[in-house]
Specification:
alpha/beta; eight-stranded parallel beta sheet; four-stranded parallel beta sheet; 3 helices; 22% helix; globular
Length: 165
């Protein structure tokens, strides 16, 4: 999808199932003159309905990448620990922190000194402040995690920050 899908999702109402339906957003895309196509996929695919599904797919993809990249595992500056089972965008900024297994740090994201992140997705332009600890967490785009805070989810319940509920 292009970013236009998010504009359409913002306009979608709750369905009778009390969910925001992606198909409704696709219909709005077509009605607003955007091109929508379909492709037949072969190989791995997964239905991602819940945050736990997203971290599970994240783990599967990282396992596949790490088995192929071998010596090209992420390189870290002095004082930065990055697991070979993590993916850090080249334009992410890392302080002296620890990026654990099955973690993705997206473009423009920042993980500051003393922070420890594992089994997490740090979305674009999110900031994890000094000394924060995150495990089984998804940090939404542009959000900031306060310094020295701990958020610990589990395989059964991924935390989404900021918590709006």
């Amino acid at each position: 999808f292009t970013p236009n899908v998010f504009d359409m999702l913002d306009r979608v109402d709750l369905s009778p199932r009390e969910e925001y339906e992606l198909t409704d957003a696709l219909t709005l895309l077509v009605e607003n003159g955007h091109k929508v196509g379909a492709y037949e996929l072969s190989g791995f695919w997964s239905n991602v309905s819940f945050p736990e599904d997203l971290l599970d797919v994240n783990r599967i993809v990282i396992d596949g990448l790490s088995s192929r990249r071998g010596k090209n595992a992420p390189k870290a500056a002095p004082g930065v620990e990055v697991s070979s089972l993590a993916s850090v965008h080249p334009r992410a900024m890392l302080g002296k922190c620890s990026i654990g297994a099955y973690t993705v740090v997206d473009q423009g994201a920042q993980v500051m000194d003393g922070a420890k992140v594992t089994h997490a997705i740090i979305c674009r332009n999110a900031i994890v402040r000094e000394g924060a600890f995150l495990d089984h967490v998804l940090v939404r785009p542009g959000c900031t995690v306060k310094p020295a805070t701990t958020y610990q989810g589990s395989e059964e319940k991924v935390l989404i920050l900021p918590d709006e509920g």
